[in-house]
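Please go through the sequence line and token line underneath and see whether the fold suits the sequence. See right below:
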Amino acid sequence: MKDFLKIMLASALGFLIAQLLIFFIALGFFLGTAGSLMSVKSTEKFTLQENSVLHLKLNGPIVERTVELSPFTTMIGPDYPTNMGLNDIVSAIRKAKSNTQIKGIYLDSRMFSASMATLAEIRGELESFKESGKFIVSYADTYTQGGYYLASAADKIAINPQGMLDLHGLASIPIFFKDALDKLGIEMQIFKVGTYKSAVEPFTQNEMSEANREQINSYLNDAWSFLRSDIAKARSLTIDEVDALANSLTLMQPTDFLLTENLVDTMLFETEMKDYIRSLLNINKDNKIPSATVENMKSVRTKTVQKTSNTIALLYAEGEIVSGTGSTGIQDKYFVDQIEKLRKDDDIKAVVFRINSGGGSAYASEQIWKAIGGLKAEKPVVASMGDLAASGGYYIACNSDKIVAQPTTITGSIGIFGMIPNMEGTSDKVGISTDAVKTNKFGDFGNISRPLNVDEKQVVQAHVERGYDLFLTRCSEGRGISKDTLALYAEGRVWTGNQAKEIGLVDELGGIEKAIEIAAEMANLGKSYVIFEYPKLRSPLEELLNPSREELATETLKDILGDSYELFILLKDIKEQDYIQARVPYGLNIQ
């Protein structure tokens, strides 16, 4: 028996040692591989050459900013589409404007996606770049409407002889789920305040309400007026001519038509386009074009920037507003902590609060609103609205000293709603039943296997109405507008940034740079200040040593679900009993 135990223990110990050896060998291999990848990348230092062009290749989704993927994420993650950071694009264009080694921009428009305000931000930078006297030329096999809007700022627009150009105007195509939910036996019990609060419509109707149709028609036409005007001015066309072209289905027209109608300047194959760029640079046709990509421009330094006692913090808030402590999206506890750090930092003299959010949890929005109030009591806070700063996104912006938005920003939507599912029909379909014993009247409130009773509905509706009144109060106090006046523009109605300025919901029209200028002026900084972005993005090494499972899961879900990701988050919030929401429809689906 003793020999048997010895053999057993020896075998177990040997197995354990073998497993540990395998683990450390694998770990060493992994770290060595990752280290090699990182060292190779670090040794491939880009050097900007004389007589270069900025190769502005737009491909993939354009978001506010991106983090460099770690080797860990690259090796185990899914095949992500390559996101481009708006901040990186803007920075690259500005560096190219001031750098004497760069002679112009080659705008290489691929199948990228960007919302209207993002396009306006980039186009504004291209217009500013032209003030340097340097050239901008554009080429594409196929111009998306967004790509053509940017290309219209170029000195010359070229298209492949067999290429295509899309100019169609704007449309919003919401998706409705009511019949699908009916088939599943799911009833969404709705509680809302606001005639225009349309976020619940996909769950209760099969088409838009008249009020929703009215507001969508209003903000689409207003946004299109800016895009149309910019294109008309750049291409020496009239407004009516641009509309006529948008009504001609340009995507299906031959390239000769595009040339005749002055939408493009020339038809070239890509090789011919590159020869044309060589001629602009006065280099031989056989020579490689010296160029720098947006990624390359990150390593091109203008001057050493260090945090000083005159610092403006650029605080990014992008995504769904939810309760939580994580760094993904806009989680209230995490952002309150970030805001508190900025408040306590004496070197930071002003904060630009960059918001790109359609809202989310009303409770979480209130927590961030409160933190912004504490921050602005000690230093100026200027909100800069991106593509979307509506409902909860407007809630967290309204307490700022000033609000800046692009004319095509989607904002407003001051209203809230509650949505509680009743799955009694589903239970009946599959033969499941429930019962309850309770000591008090509302003991089983939240039981989704039955519909809410009259008393429960009254309590929930009263709760939603109190939340709406609080939302109105916060906006009224923040904007200095009486509640009665504000109520005329609330009711959940969505506005463009241009419309919002006209009714007092926004102070100025412009992008991030405009917001920074206002913040610097309010803090009496003159031109002597530096800008640092917050929250700080983690380096590839930090991602490697401490990969965020939450961020990896989020990116995976976004990759799989696509445009349905926001719907998933909404249903997740409801499941977790965050019933009261301040958000725009989960998918505006503007095309």
About this structure: The domain at 52-168+249-297 is CATH 3.90.226.10 (2-enoyl-CoA Hydratase; Chain A, domain 1).
